[in-house]
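Researcher: Re-running this chain for the archive, since the previous output was lost when a drive failed. Same request as before.
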Amino acid sequence: MNLLESIVPFDSYATAMAQDVLGWLGMSVKVQNLDRLPPSGPLLIVCNHRSFLDPFLLTSFLKTPINFVCHRYMGNVPVLREVLQTCGGFPLSNSDWYPDLLHHSTELFDRGKTIGIFPEGAAPMLDTPAPGVLRPFYRGFAHLALQAKVVNLQILPVAIFSQAEMQWPAVPLSVLHRLDPLEPLFKQDGWHPAVLYREIAIRIGTPISIAPYSEHYHGRQAGTVVKDLTATLSRQVADLLVA
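Model: Regenerated structure tokens:
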């Protein structure tokens, strides 16, 4: 399956789909600092992740279409794949996924689009931390932002803080392992939990320009720049969670 095989071309439909998914759940949602959301792209949203509802929440309540980078296994689940793609999501395709991700993300950024990514990876989805606790960030989003080489790209830290929720076992990990044998977290016994929010706050941070980091992203400095950018975004999301 191609990475952007079925991203919906009609942005308004993606937002409407997300709102429909959430409409019947009856959640209490407060959005803080919506005025910090840049009026136009290109934009990379970096957010914590604890529920399958997170992409729908951000697309709906930030009132902007967001193309989310999703886990590989989601591209192998027929119904889930179509729902995610309808909302603008694109699952990573295979073990050699980064070149495709960089290529297609650059295309979206060049068109002024917004991409969302959850740098904690799959870990908080399997072993859900307490609200307010942030898992370490992977550095892939920082490499993506710097290597895309898109003028005026900004990164926006966002936090979803759960104030009340329900959890229950949803899918055996053995099933997910069959869908994605490459994911080491699925090579264990147990269940993938589902988190259903009852009350949350979506907290928006201050956009960060990628330009000052891009100036030094070369040679031996590249690793340090990526490390610094990752630490900066991790710290900002963590601060939003305890705000």
